[in-house]
Inverse folding.
């Protein structure tokens, strides 16, 4: 298991690092994401090469002869094959903590908090105790993305905006959440979990989850305030 | 195909190449963003790659649309009076057989004035420059009346020329007709 910060850094630099080291939370190269990246890259390169080939060899007669066969490959068959691989790969890769940490200057304090042994913030506890319900190393995504396809879409769209802001330098430190994290983000995992149900404060008199928690009257952050321990 | 006016109008010109170019641009942009994104692991490029995926769908749709109109060995085209079939200087890739109507060949001389080279009618051919590689049209072909033509791919015309004596016999007649007109109206083009 690669949980040490140095190993985390090793895969955040370039594709060559990624191909050499592989998926950051697997023991060795060869996960679905690793293969997905490689396949997507090969298919993208093939598409570009075939398009350039037709522009050079069939200039002015793109709808004739063998050019049509190349179009069939570069504009239909390969893109159709690539679509599911590419989407799966990018969506999986962009769930990773190391992806969120790509904006080093803005995200570094949050990652340092999460990765530092002994830190007691919710992010550190979730990351270091491997609480991500679906896949290790996706703790940022699991806590910040709403449920379902819509949640994934929205969080990726926000990511696009944030990464653009970071790229253009249009941001202020320390970065802030757009709006407070919804309790639904916590409850989607915790509400049926044994540790949650074992706390009497979470339950009503009948032993069910308190409706005050479910309807948002009592908010998670009232008792668990420190999502991240970041100065500033 | 001439029975369906809309299709007849769509089936003319080189716009299919332009549609293919747009499709290539759409798919190519996504592919390049994908390559750049994975090579640099830049978060903006990787997320853009996801949100640009509709361009791939657009490219595929444009390709399928264009494929219906890919140049065939024979293609029927219909023109109204005064329309241009091809322009002087444009790439020469097809030969046209006039089914009905009449077509005037016009040359623009070095002084900028236009001169009529020939008027061709039913059963005659246009655009023989397509038989020579990389040659552009030497004349502008403009319809005089409502005209229906059959567009023949140049490479297929060679087979037709070799196998059908009636077609072969027309070439010298047409060539003489055009050369006479060029000599008379635009002698500077005589050597082309």
């Amino acid at each position: 298991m690669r949980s040490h910060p140095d190993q985390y850094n090793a895969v955040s630099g370039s594709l060559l690092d990624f191909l050499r080291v592989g998926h950051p939370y697997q023991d060795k190269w060869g996960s679905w994401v690793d293969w997905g990246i490689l396949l997507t890259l090969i298919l993208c390169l093939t598409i570009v090469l075939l398009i350039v080939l037709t522009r050079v060899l069939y200039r002015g007669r793109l709808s004739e002869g063998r050019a049509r066969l190349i179009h069939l490959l570069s504009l239909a068959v390969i893109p159709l094959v690539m679509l599911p691989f590419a989407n799966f790969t990018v969506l999986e890769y962009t769930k990773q903590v190391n992806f969120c940490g790509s904006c080093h200057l803005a995200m570094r304090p949050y990652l340092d908090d999460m990765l530092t042994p002994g830190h007691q913030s919710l992010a550190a506890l979730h990351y270091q105790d491997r609480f991500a319900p679906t896949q290790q190393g996706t703790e940022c995504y699991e806590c910040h993305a709403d449920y379902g396809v819509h949640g994934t879409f929205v969080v990726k769209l926000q990511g696009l905006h944030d990464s653009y802001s970071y790229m253009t330098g249009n941001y202020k430190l320390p970065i802030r959440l757009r709006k407070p994290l919804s309790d639904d983000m916590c409850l989607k995992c915790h509400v049926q979990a044994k540790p949650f149900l074992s706390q009497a404060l979470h339950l009503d008199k009948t032993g069910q989850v308190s409706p005050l928690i479910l309807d948002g009257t009592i908010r998670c952050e009232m008792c668990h305030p420190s999502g991240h321990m970041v100065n500033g | 195909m001439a029975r369906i006016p809309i299709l007849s109008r769509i089936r003319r010109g080189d716009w299919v190449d332009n549609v293919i170019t747009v499709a290539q641009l759409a798919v190519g942009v996504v592919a390049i963003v994908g390559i750049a994104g994975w090579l640099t692991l830049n978060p903006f490029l990787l997320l853009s790659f996801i949100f640009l995926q509709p361009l791939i769908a657009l490219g595929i749709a444009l390709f399928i649309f264009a494929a219906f109109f890919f140049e065939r060995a024979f293609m029927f085209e219909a023109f109204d009076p005064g329309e241009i079939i091809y322009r002087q200087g444009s790439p020469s890739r097809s030969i046209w057989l006039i089914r009905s109507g009449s077509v005037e060949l016009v040359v623009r001389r070095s002084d900028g004035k236009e001169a009529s080279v020939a008027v061709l009618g039913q059963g005659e051919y246009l655009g023989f420059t397509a038989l020579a590689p990389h040659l552009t049209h030497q004349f502008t072909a403009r319809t005089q009346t409502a005209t229906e033509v059959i567009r023949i791919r140049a490479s297929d015309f060679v087979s037709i020329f070799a196998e059908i004596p009636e077609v072969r016999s027309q070439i010298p007649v047409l060539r003489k007709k055009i050369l006479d007109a060029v000599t008379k109206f635009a002698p500077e083009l005589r050597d082309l």
Observations:
- The mean pLDDT of chain B is 79.
- Residues 90 and 136 of chain B are 5 Å apart (CA to CA).
